[in-house]
Amino acid sequence: MSFMDVDKQIEIIQQGVEEIIPLEELRKKLVSSQKENQPLVVKLGCDPSRPDLHLGHAVVLRKLRQFQDLGHQAILVIGDFTAMIGDPSGRNKTRPQLTLEEAKNNAESYIDQAKIILDLDSLKICNNSKWLNSMNFSNVVDLASKYTVARMMERDDFEKRFKSEISITIHEFLYPLAQAMDSVHLKSDIELGGTDQKFNLLVGRDIQREYDQDPQVILTVPLIEGTDGIEKMSKSYDNHIGITDSADDMYGKTLSIPDNMIEKYFMLAANYDDSSMDKVKKSLSDSKINPRDIKRELARKIVEVYYSEDLAKKAEDNFDKIFIKKDIPDDMPQMKLDEDMPLVDILLLYELVSSKSEARRLIDQGAVRINDQKCMDRDHIIIGDEPLVIKVGKRRFLKVN
Which of 83, 108, 109, 110 is nearest to 97 (CA)? Predict the structure, then answer.
């Protein structure tokens, strides 16, 4: 196949990237790839400890997709074996271990969502249990002998825990070594990851050298803060925007981010190039332009990435109708209720909540309204022949009868 000019490839690859280590090696690999007409092997490992993907995950997935579009071989490594160890990155305590079955189930959900971004036709998907499970104890001892405890303790997470006298189990040292063996097995040229993965990726370079391979170039992308603008985006912090969220939810959640996050979201979540980012920066520096209007553009663009321009406009119209005009949406889900039913059961049945405990918590918080009146009664019964509208939070509606 014919590859794009190397300088142009590097220009594209560098967009939205935190670090390329080392850049000169990336150039050499790209030149060699073009000369030999051979795609580079670009690896991304995914941790299937959580099955729900959000815009934070999408940052590195979109970078992998860029390499696909440039004609290189993208490999998505499902860390079903390493998930049983637990990645210590960014952890102040030992991460709970998953069973192989739990990891595989989560991985299926991960791939189903990742296909929204990645080209599955050219993507190679591998489970690292395939080669890591086949290593015997002698292999593990040999691998462990190639890295020192002193180097391992240079890792910030381990150093902080050691000084705080928080336990570090030996098996956690094996995580970066196992991830490095993925690179050895796949002979990866490039490995992608978030900035929190830098230590693991560098270990991969060291271990590849120990196995007489050319070390991979590592490419890190920034972590994106969630809608609170403080913590990194995570479902556990309840500050995430899911890539499978509805267009309405995606639009509304984006509008809730702090103004100081607008520029970062345009670059990392809306995939703006350098030219478009210059326009955004100019608008943000113009005191005559309300940041709210720039944020509305951002919300539309993010919805367009995952849906379409039409649905983005519709999401904006729905938002205005509900929150500015204080109206209710026209296309809310509906249910026909033939007999009396507890409110909590209705909320769960129509997926307005994920569990009965969440339903009760939201009722206690005054986040559930019936015909725009707060319902604070956990045991409230909805009468079968009574037409009404149930609202949960800011954006979830259900019309009964």
Answer: 83
Which helix (H) or strand (E) is 49 found in, with range?
none
Cβ-contact 264, 258 below 8 angstroms: no
Same domain, 66 and 134: yes
Query: Could you give the CA distance from residue 262 to residue 104 in angstroms, rounded to a whole number?
Result: 36
Residue position matching structure tokens 């142009």: 8
Q: Are strands 373-374 and 368-370 parallel, antiparallel or unpaired?
A: antiparallel
Q: Are residues 65 and 176 in the same domain?
A: yes
| 182-219 as b/e: b if 16+ CB within 10 A | bbbbbebbbbbbbebbbbbbbbbbebbeeeeeebbbbb
What contacts 95, CB < 8 A, 6 or more positions away?
49, 86, 87, 88
> What are the CA-CA distances from residue 132 to residues 11, 73, 208, 218, 346 (Å)?
36, 22, 15, 22, 46
DSSP state, residue 254: H
Using one digit for the tens of pLDDT, what is the confidence trace for 159-204? 888 888 888 888 889 999 999 999 999 999 999 999 999 999 999 9
Estimate to the nearest angstrom the gap between the alpha carbon of 365 and the chain centroid. Answer: 29
Q: What is the pTM of this model?
A: 0.79
CATH number at residue 131: 3.40.50.620
